[in-house]
UniProtKB/TrEMBL annotation:
Organism: Neoarthrinium moseri
Name of protein: Protein HGH1 homolog
A Pfam entry, by short name: DUF383
Disordered, as annotated region: 333-367
Species lineage: Eukaryota, Fungi, Dikarya, Ascomycota, Pezizomycotina
Domain (Protein HGH1 C-terminal): residue spans on this chain: 283-335
Compositionally biased intervals (Acidic residues): 356-367
Family: Belongs to the HGH1 family.
Residue ranges occupied by any Protein HGH1 N-terminal domain in the UniProt entry: 94-278
Biased composition (Basic and acidic residues): 336-355
Length: 367
């Protein structure tokens, strides 16, 4: 005989909406404590849950929460991420300005990006609502959702912060990185330039996801010149600002720094999360792989900022990366024999998800 819990799982598909509501609400905690109960009968409960994403918003809230948690399981993740009809449904819902579960759908999308084939989202298209005006490419719609969500100007119930984790995982793929550095026809903007401004946002989730996205996109070596050019992507000040606190530099150093790094307020605070600091330092390591970039970073006095970060952040990984970066920036480029002394660095680094670990250890968001 089925247990009471197994019977409860069976009520997911009950034709009575009140029973479905009670069943899904009571099953939410078991999606983390006993996820195996949803994998019976060849994942039939999961297949039922996928259909209920379209149910009444309150039922859908519990359903999406369960799916966010269950997507930590590889079998469930595959079931969700390879179902095009299901993906089209949640992508269509998340962009609606009145969708009450938009934040949960953003978390689910971020988890689904752990499945490599999810990168096919790059080619997906759908008609946007008039409030979005982002063209028909889904990835651009998600980027603009993320931007508008920062100030709550699109959907009053959603900030879309977890879309930054989606972008972080998607940019582990070269074709997605290429998209992020390509000016888009519909608005004439390079996508990565929309994200750089959030490196000091109040949301730690947003800061973390954006930092990882910037780092992953920095693996696109041909774009490094554009990354650093003030009239193009101009990413350097947005990476350096989180590394700076209220310390004072001598006048010569200050005057040579980028304008955004000069005359910072006395209450300026350094990024509080050492993992985010570490990610920004790794981005600088990647950008320093070319001679022109290294010369530019020396010219605008990146070294003093890294020196102060090394002194003031009590984290071994941060200190180690600071030392590596200082070694690259402060060594002579050539020895007496004319051979380059500074090695090309950074290209053997792993692209990372927003949690700062490589693919096989990526953490799934849970609710």
């Amino acid at each position: 005989m089925p247990t009471e819990l197994e019977e409860l799982v069976g009520f997911i598909a009950n034709p009575n909406p009140q029973i479905r509501l009670l069943a899904t609400e009571n099953l939410v905690p078991y999606s983390t404590s006993e996820p195996s109960i949803f994998k019976v009968e060849n994942l039939q409960p999961v297949k039922n849950l996928k259909l209920l994403v379209k149910d009444h918003p309150k039922i859908a809230e519990h359903v999406v929460t369960i799916l966010v948690n269950l997507s930590a399981d590889r079998d469930v993740l595959e079931c969700l991420a390879t179902d095009d009809k299901f993906l089209d449904t949640i992508l269509g819902y998340v962009i609606q300005p009145t969708e009450p579960n938009a934040n949960l759908l953003s978390m689910l999308l971020a988890n689904l990006a752990k499945w490599d084939a999810f990168k096919s989202v790059l080619s997906k298209k759908q008609e946007p609502p008039k409030e979005l005006a982002s063209g028909d490419l889904v990835l651009n719609q998600l980027l603009d959702l993320f931007v508008k969500g920062a100030e709550g100007t699109y959907n009053k119930t959603a900030d879309f912060d977890h879309l930054s984790y989606l972008f972080a995982d998607l940019t582990k793929h070269a074709e997605i990185r290429h998209h992020f550095v390509t000016k888009q026809d519909y608005d004439g903007v390079i996508p990565i330039a929309k994200l750089k401004v959030f490196t000091e946002h109040k949301s730690e989730v947003r800061r973390k996801g954006v930092a990882s996205t910037l780092k992953n996109v920095a693996f696109d070596v041909p774009s490094h010149a554009a990354f650093l050019a003030e009239d193009e992507i101009n990413i350097l000040p947005y990476i350096l600002l989180p590394l700076t606190g209220n310390e004072e530099y001598d006048e010569e150093e200050t005057m040579a720094m980028l304008p955004d790094l000069q005359l910072l307020p006395p209450d300026k605070e350094r990024e509080s999360d050492p993992n985010i600091i570490q990610t920004h330092l790794e981005t600088l390591m990647l950008l320093s792989s070319g001679r022109e970039a290294r010369d530019y970073m020396r010219e605008v006095k990146v070294y003093p900022i890294i020196r102060e970060t090394h002194l003031r952040v009590n984290d071994n990984d941060v200190k180690d990366t600071c030392e590596r970066l200082v070694n690259v920036l402060m060594r002579d480029e050539e020895d007496s024999s004319g051979k380059a002394r500074v090695e090309e660095v950074g290209h053997d680094e792993e692209t990372r998800g927003a949690d700062g670990v490589d693919d096989e250890d990526d953490q799934i968001v849970e609710v």
